[in-house]
Specification:
Blueprint: E1 2-9, H1 17-30, E2 32-33, H2 38-41, H3 48-57, H4 60-68, H5 76-88, H6 91-97, H7 103-114, H8 119-124, H9 128-154, E3 164-166, E4 207-209, H10 212-217, E5 225-229, H11 241-251, E6 274-277, E7 279-280, E8 283-292, H12 303-330, H13 348-359, E9 367-377, H14 382-390, H15 396-399
Antiparallel strand pairs: 1-9, 2-7, 3-4, 3-5, 5-6, 8-9
Length: 404
C-alpha cells in the first residue's frame, strides 16, 4: 500500500527545457534519499526529537518544560498563555485558554494539577501514541544523519562491504510493525504535524550484512541498502556508518545499549528497532512539462474537482427521467433540450487550455510548470522527493520561506 501524489511546480526557471527534463527523468530513474520529513520533527522552534532526547536521558522536568515553554512561531494568544504559565504557574488559567489541539500540553497540566512536581507521571498522562512519537522522532533524527553519511562516504552507485541489505528472499514491501505503528495516527500537540504513516520497521530477519562474497556475486544493488532505527533487535552496519549513531547519541548524553533511568517506554533498549531504505524510487512515475500565463489557472485536477464532477454527474442522472418526460410532452422530436449550465462545466484540462489562450498576450509572458504524479510507500515523504528535484534545503527556516 502507498500514497498517490499529484504535484505541480509552478514558475520553474532553468537554462533550458532539456535541463528540466534531465532533472525530472533523474528523479524517476534514480529516486531520492529517503529522509524523514519535517512532519516527523515538527516545524516549530522546539523539534520533537529534542523532547525525545530529554525523555531518553530521563530528564522529566526538562521534557515537560520543552513541551510547555513559550516558543517562536506560534499564534500570539497561545504564546501569551505559555508566557503567563511560565511566570505564574497558573495551571487553571492555562487549561482554560490553551486550545483543544494542544493535546500534550493540556494532558501534562491536568496531571500536574493533581500531582504537583510529579513530572514523570505528567508525561505519562500524554496519550501514548503522542508521547512515544517524541522518542521515535529521535530514532528518525539519528537515521537521517546516518543516511547522509552513507551517501557522502560511499555514494549511491554501489553496495559496499558492511552495508545492511534486504535479502533477495524477503519481501520488503510486507513490513511488519514492531510496536510503534500507532504513533503517527494521533492529532498532535502544538506545531507537531504527525502524519498517519507507519514507522517503516521491517521484519528483523529480512536483512543481512554484505560480505566480500556478496560483492563478488553482484546480486545486490544500492536499492537494497537499508539503515536501522536503533533498538534492541536492530543490527548496525558493519562499516563506518555505524559510528554516527553512537557518536551523535553520546553527544546528546544518550546510550543506545543501556537504560539510564529504569523507565522502559522511554528507553531505546525497550524498542525492537527496525529498518528503512536509504533510497526510494517513485512508483508509477509520470510527469508533464506545461506552459501557462495566468497564475490562477488550474494546472491539475484537485480532489475538490473530482468530487464536484461526481456530484454533478449524480445530479444529472437523477434529473434525466424528469427531463426526458418533459421533453416528450412539450417539445417537437427534432428539438434538443439544452443541458443545465452546471452540468457542462469543463474539466480542469479544458480550463487549462482556455486559460492558455486567454492569457497569451504580450503583457503576460509564458511560464513553465512541471506536473508530477507518483506513488510512494506510506512511510516515505513526497516533500523529500521534491527536495531532491529542486536541490533545496530541508531546514525548518528554509521551509518556512516557501509559499506552500
Amino acid at each position: 500500500m502507498g500514497n498517490r501524489f499529484t504535484i505541480t511546480l509552478r514558475g520553474v526557471v532553468a537554462e533550458s527545457e532539456d535541463m528540466i527534463k534531465a532533472a525530472v527523468d533523474g528523479l524517476g530513474k534514480n529516486g531520492f534519499i529517503n529522509y524523514y520529513g519535517l512532519q516527523r520533527f515538527g516545524s516549530g522552534s522546539v523539534p520533537t526529537h529534542r523532547i525525545g532526547a530529554a525523555l531518553l536521558r530521563g530528564e522529566w522536568k526538562n521534557a515537560v518544560n520543552l513541551v510547555l515553554d513559550p516558543r517562536e512561531g506560534e499564534r500570539d494568544d497561545i504564546k501569551e498563555v505559555r508566557e503567563h504559565y511560565k511566570q505564574h504557574g497558573d495551571i487553571d488559567m492555562a487549561l482554560r485558554n490553551f486550545p483543544r489541539h494542544l493535546v500534550a500540553e493540556k494532558a501534562i497540566l491536568q496531571c500536574l494539577r493533581k500531582c504537583p512536581d510529579n513530572y514523570l507521571q505528567a508525561l505519562k498522562g500524554i496519550p501514548r501514541p503522542l508521547r512515544m512519537m517524541y522518542v521515535h522522532s529521535y530514532q528518525s533524527y539519528l537515521w537521517n544523519h546516518a543516511a547522509s553519511m552513507r551517501v557522502e562516504k560511499y555514494g549511491i552507485s554501489q553496495v559496499v562491504e558492511g552495508d545492511l541489505i534486504y535479502t533477495k528472499e524477503s519481501h520488503p514491501g510486507e513490513a511488519t510493525s514492531v510496536g510503534t505503528s500507532e504513533v503517527d495516527g494521533l492529532t498532535n500537540s502544538s506545531e507537531i504535524d504527525i502524519c498517519p504513516e507507519a514507522i517503516p520497521e521491517e521484519n528483523i530477519q529480512s536483512v543481512k550484512l554484505v560480505d566480500s562474497e556478496d560483492l563478488s556475486k553482484g546480486i545486490y544493488s544500492f536499492e537494497d541498502v537499508v539503515l536501522p532505527l536503533p533498538g534492541s533487535q536492530a543490527l548496525f552496519p558493519g562499516n563506518e556508518v555505524a559510528e554516527i549513531y553512537h557518536e551523535m547519541a553520546k553527544k546528546d548524553g544518550i546510550s543506545l545499549t543501556e537504560n539510564a533511568h529504569g523507565v522502559k517506554e522511554f528507553s531505546i533498549t525497550s524498542m525492537k528497532g527496525g529498518y528503512r531504505r536509504v533510497f526510494q524510487k517513485p512508483i508509477d512515475f509520470e510527469w508533464e512539462l506545461m506552459t501557462y500565463t495566468d497564475d490562477s489557472a488550474s494546472l491539475a485536477e484537485t480532489d475538490l474537482d473530482i468530487l464536484s464532477k461526481g456530484k454533478l454527474t449524480e445530479a444529472k442522472v437523477a434529473n434525466e427521467p424528469a427531463a426526458s418526460s418533459k421533453n416528450s410532452a412539450s417539445n417537437p422530436p427534432d428539438c434538443k433540450m439544452e443541458e443545465p449550465l452546471a452540468t457542462s462545466m469543463p474539466t480542469s484540462e479544458t480550463r487549462l487550455e482556455e486559460n492558455k489562450s486567454i492569457g497569451s498576450s504580450d503583457t503576460l509572458p509564458s511560464k513553465l510548470a512541471v506536473k508530477l504524479a507518483f506513488t510512494l510507500p506510506a512511510s516515505s515523504y513526497a516533500t523529500m522527493a521534491i527536495r531532491e528535484l529542486l536541490k533545496d534545503s530541508t531546514s525548518v527556516a528554509y521551509q518556512k520561506t516557501l509559499d506552500c
